[in-house]
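F.,

This is the one I mentioned.
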């Protein structure tokens, strides 16, 4: 069967999702063509990517790196955050893989949607900060947003088994690492090394901390609310220690559909790239079901206050998700800088949200202003710990 080649822009090409996307593109050169690469400052890796994939456009964070990369290559190299939008909206691009970390991924997604480009989404901020705006635009422009995060991609696939009006609830799974087994006294002494001691996927410093505090799961609740257009009271969380089931959908007749597979983000990246088809995975991507237990446990809301914050900010609505994100950004940095303790993170986040004057129906500018306000307000709270 002949397929139309998808022209891809990768935002965050030197990160884990970006490199996985390129690995898949290399395996299927008859299906994917790399048009644009966006990266921060990993120049050496980016040089290799340019040499191998010969993109039409490259964007990096600063002019110095742009000059280095442009020497000896016949490729357009740009610098600066504003040019991420240039890459995402290039007229040759069919699909944007957004794996940037932070709010720099929001505007490129919005502008790409306006031009009808398919989105493979691994950037949490896009939906945490502005989920309502983004999903309304996607509906208006008939754009598919295919989630790459394991839980949301699992839900996306499972939801193909039934109609939206038949959904009883969405069930997000969460793992159970060493920190989950600690008592409250031990939690007060958690170090960065404890946070990095993860049994499965390593997601980068910031996301590893968010995973340990359960902020990451709260973000996922917010994302699920917008991606799948369901209210917070239809989104549940369950602990699944084996990392085999990556989320479930319960329908109104009592049927539960789940997605099982290896704890490997490349499988979800490949699903997004091939959607609505499926690509063939290498042999190591398959699980042996024999002697594999499946267990589910109640989520530890009492030990981890951040775990319930996703439902809280959805209920509050408006600018509260942006404030949640901004406060967390500051609190996590303070923890990594050893200015506060691990269990101070939820306190700073909650106090920041309590101090915020909610804007119920914000535009994008108000959302970003509120996120920035929360970062600064949380900094003032961090100073109290010095």
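My design for it:
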């Amino acid at each position: 069967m002949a397929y139309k080649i998808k022209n891809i822009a990768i935002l965050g090409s030197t990160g884990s999702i970006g490199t996985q996307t390129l690995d898949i593109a290399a395996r299927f050169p008859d299906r994917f063509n790399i048009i644009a690469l966006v990266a921060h400052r990993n120049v050496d890796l980016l040089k290799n990517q340019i040499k191998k994939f010969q993109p039409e456009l490259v964007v990096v964070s600063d002019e110095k790196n742009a000059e280095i990369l442009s020497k000896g290559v016949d490729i357009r190299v740009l610098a600066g955050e504003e040019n991420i939008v240039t890459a995402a909206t290039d007229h040759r691009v069919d699909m944007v893989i957004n794996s940037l970390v932070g709010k720099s991924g929001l505007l490129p997604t919005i502008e790409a949607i306006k031009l009808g480009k398919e989105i493979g989404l691994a950037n949490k901020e896009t939906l945490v900060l502005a989920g309502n705006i983004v999903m309304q635009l996607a509906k208006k422009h008939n754009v598919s947003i295919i989630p790459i995060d394991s839980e949301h991609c699992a839900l996306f696939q499972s939801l193909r088994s039934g109609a939206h009006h038949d959904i009883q609830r969405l069930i997000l799974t969460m793992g159970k690492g060493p920190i989950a087994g600690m008592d409250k006294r031990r939690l007060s002494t958690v170090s960065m090394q404890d946070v990095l001691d993860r049994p499965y996927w390593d997601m980068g410093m910031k996301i590893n901390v968010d995973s340990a505090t359960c902020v990451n799961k709260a973000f996922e609740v917010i994302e699920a609310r917008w991606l799948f257009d369901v209210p917070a009271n239809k989104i549940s969380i369950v602990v699944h220690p084996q990392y085999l089931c990556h989320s479930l959908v319960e329908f109104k007749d009592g049927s539960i559909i789940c997605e099982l597979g290896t704890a490997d983000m490349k499988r979800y990246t490949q699903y997004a790239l091939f959607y609505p088809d499926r690509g063939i995975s290498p042999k190591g991507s398959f699980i042996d079901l024999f002697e594999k237990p499946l267990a589910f446990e109640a989520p530890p809301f009492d030990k981890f206050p951040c775990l319930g914050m996703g439902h809280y900010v959805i209920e509050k609505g408006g600018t509260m998700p942006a404030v949640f994100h901004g406060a967390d950004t500051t609190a996590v940095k303070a923890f990594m800088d050893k200015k506060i303790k691990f269990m101070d993170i939820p306190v700073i986040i909650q106090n920041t949200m309590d101090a915020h004057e909610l804007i119920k129906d914000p535009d994008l500018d108000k959302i970003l202003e509120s996120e920035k306000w929360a970062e600064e307000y949380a900094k003032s709270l961090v100073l109290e710990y010095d």
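The two ends are 64 Å apart (CA to CA).

Talk soon.
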